[in-house]
Amino acid sequence: MNARIDKDRKTLEAIGLIYCKAHHGGAKDAAGLCPSCRHTIEGTLERTASCPYGHEGNCEDCDIHCQRGEARERIREIMRYAAPRMTFRHPIMTLGYLRKKLR
Q1: Rounded CA gap, 24 and 52, in Å?
Q2: What pLDDT score does 48 carry?
Q3: Predicted TM-score (pTM) above 0.90
Q4: Share of residues in the chain with pLDDT > 90 (%)
Q5: Given its phi and psi angles, is residue 25 left (phi above 0), alpha (psi -120 to 50 degrees) or beta?
Q6: For residues 103 and 97, what is the distance between their CA atoms, to the nearest angstrom?
Q7: Residue-wise pLDDT tens digits, 58-74
Q8: Which pLDDT score, from 0 to 100, does residue 56 have?
Q9: CA distance 23 to 33
Q10: What is the per-residue burial (b if ≥16 Cβ within 10 Å, else e) of 51-72?
Q11: Any residues with CB less than 8 A from the CB of 101 and at least 6 apart, and which?
């Protein structure tokens, strides 16, 4: 697996876990995600793996958006809630994201 996609998987799972713990109860997988959040994260990773730009930079800054419709809104909702909380829970991942964003 591509190292960049592997890093994105870890980051998305951390973000998804923050969101899922706050919004969903019930059945969780080994990573602590409900089926809905797991589906959103896996779908996002599939789309970024096939990005025509090689997934350089951040998706929000891209001219085209690989995510469409409901999937895009869902990941934006998760990111909007969890991203500010990442600073305190995963500061190293946050610094990596900011470094990538400032390129």
Answers
A1: 33
A2: 80
A3: no
A4: 32
A5: beta
A6: 10
A7: 666 677 777 778 888 99
A8: 64
A9: 11
A10: eeeebeeebeeeeeebbeeeee
A11: 57, 58, 61
